[in-house]
Specification:
The protein contains 18 helices and no strands. It has 471 residues and is mainly alpha-helical. Helix 2 crosses helix 7, helix 5 packs antiparallel against helix 8 and helix 15 runs antiparallel to helix 18. It starts with 20 loop residues before the first helix and ends in a 16-residue tail after the last helix.
């Protein structure tokens, strides 16, 4: 019996020669499709970011109690959030540096441990100064968690499913997390009463964080990172686990999805240079997405910060204002789900342009035409819908611009810029509100959406394309 020549081996066992790393990984992912392993990975990531979102709301929920127990003023409570979100930005940058050197999986667990320790320190803080320091630690963990989550999910999926997978992060965080955070506070304060009930709020968040760390013990490193750092055999093993739906245990067999011989010359451990994201090849994408995320985060956080004030100035009680704010937040959940679903159908630039256009309409409508509560709720929900569509799509768009060697750092820097903008811009919006009123403030927010719509035209379109790899 004759033997087939090696050139005629099955493509499942021997990938085509002279193909790039990115092409081989994308081909493997496309052949595998979606398996139970993918679902497990998504669940492990989303549980963490869900509780992160609740933690981000913890200061707002506990603020009135802290004010009564410790006599804190508005500035002191505000400083707690400033410390948190400043650390979020720093945490994202640090995560970007570390994950491109040590890997995604290790850092994801470390972030939650930092977050858990910070929450525990909040719960036992003996004074205000320690509480501020604890909130800074919490912010470091929060920032790193989201940054690594975005990169991990973008690297585990093919181009067809990547957008939906990354979009689910904001469904869990900006959607469900932000909406259910007040309910979490209601439950905790109903169970625990007395002066120290705010301590229980922070302390209860330690338990799910530790549970998620344990739950994630079977989460693998991404094949893209392993292959980009020369660990082709390990990358093949992980791809086989994805294909067989087995994140743990012994594999039935292993196919060769990545051709080690073909890639050997191109897989030396990468040298990560943070300046590369601003080099000639990537400068346009970095600057454009940096501007876009600044505009989007600034609009979102300004709205969330100031809308209760605007509603109470229109004669509502604080309780009614918070309930109406919660209704408007439903737009965030719908926006996150929408962005996740349409990521499979529409190019990124079209989605971002549409989101910015809707945001412009919502800001103008709220500032100049919302004369009754029905219109207030409609334009408020549309505003939140728009910014979450923008944020979710930017989270997807940014990692697709860069090769593996700098993907984590470059994406983290872009997200960190957004966090800083979101933390600082409400001061400007608040000053405009105080001096010139609601229409002027929303005119400023309208300008943010217009700038965002222009900025998103400059990065290269990535819809349907494999993620770039080192070359």
């Amino acid at each position: 019996m004759s033997t087939l020549p090696s050139s005629m081996n099955s493509p499942q066992d021997s990938p085509a020669e002279r193909t790039t790393l990115g092409t081989q990984i994308e081909s493997a992912y496309s052949r595998i499709g979606l398996t139970s392993a993918h679902i497990g990975i998504v669940a492990m990531v989303l549980f963490g970011v869900f509780f992160d979102a609740i933690e981000q709301n913890a200061v707002g929920i506990s603020g009135p109690v802290l004010r009564a127990d410790w006599g804190l003023g508005g500035t002191e409570i505000g400083l707690l959030n400033t410390a948190t979100f400043t650390a979020v930005a720093l945490g994202r940058i640090l995560a970007g540096v570390v994950m491109d050197r040590l890997g995604r999986r290790t850092l994801l667990g470390a972030n939650l441990l930092v977050f858990a320790f910070g929450s525990l320190l909040c719960a036992v803080a003996p004074n205000y100064e320690v509480l501020v320091a604890a909130r800074f630690l919490v912010g470091l963990g929060l920032g790193g968690e989201i940054a690594v989550a975005v990169i991990m999910l973008s690297e585990f999926f093919s181009a067809r499913h990547r957008g939906t997978a990354v979009g689910l992060i904001n469904v869990a965080a900006a959607g469900l997390g932000n909406m259910l955070a007040p309910l979490f506070g209601v439950i905790v304060f109903a169970i625990f009463t007395g002066e120290d009930r705010w301590r229980w709020l922070f302390g209860m968040l330690v338990l799910p964080a530790l549970a998620v760390v344990f739950y994630r013990r079977s989460l693998p490193e991404t094949p893209r990172y392993l292959a980009a750092t020369g660990r082709i055999d390990e990358a093949n093993t992980v791809i086989n686990r994805l294909a067989q739906g087995k994140l743990r245990g012994t594999l039935d067999s292993e196919k060769v999805y990545l051709d080690k011989a073909t890639l050997a010359a191109d897989t030396a451990a990468p040298k990560v240079r943070w300046t590369e994201m601003f080099g000639a090849r990537y400068r346009r994408s970095t600057l454009a997405l940096g501007v876009a995320v600044c505009m989007s985060y600034a609009a979102q956080i300004s709205m969330l910060t100031l809308i209760p004030i605007i509603l109470t100035e229109r004669g509502m009680s604080i309780t009614s204002a918070l309930w109406y704010t919660l209704v408007m937040q439903s737009g965030s959940l719908i926006g996150a789900i929408t962005a996740a679903l349409i990521a499979r159908k529409l190019p990124r630039k079209i989605t971002l342009t549409a989101g910015a256009s809707l945001g412009t309409a919502a800001a103008l409508g709220f500032g100049f035409f919302a004369t009754d509560i029905g219109l207030v709720l409609f334009f408020g929900a549309l505003f939140n819908f728009s910014v979450i569509v923008l944020n979710t799509t930017i989270w997807l768009f940014a990692p697709e611009q860069y090769p593996t060697r700098i993907r984590g750092l470059a994406t983290s820097v872009i997200l960190a810029i957004g966090s800083l903008s979101g933390g600082l811009f409400p001061l400007i919006a608040g000053a405009v509100l105080d001096s010139s009123g609601v229409p002027a403030m929303f005119a400023v927010l309208t300008a943010l959406f217009v700038v965002c719509a222009v900025a998103v035209q400059f990065p290269r379109e990535t819809f349907g394309h494999p993620m770039p790899e080192d070359d």
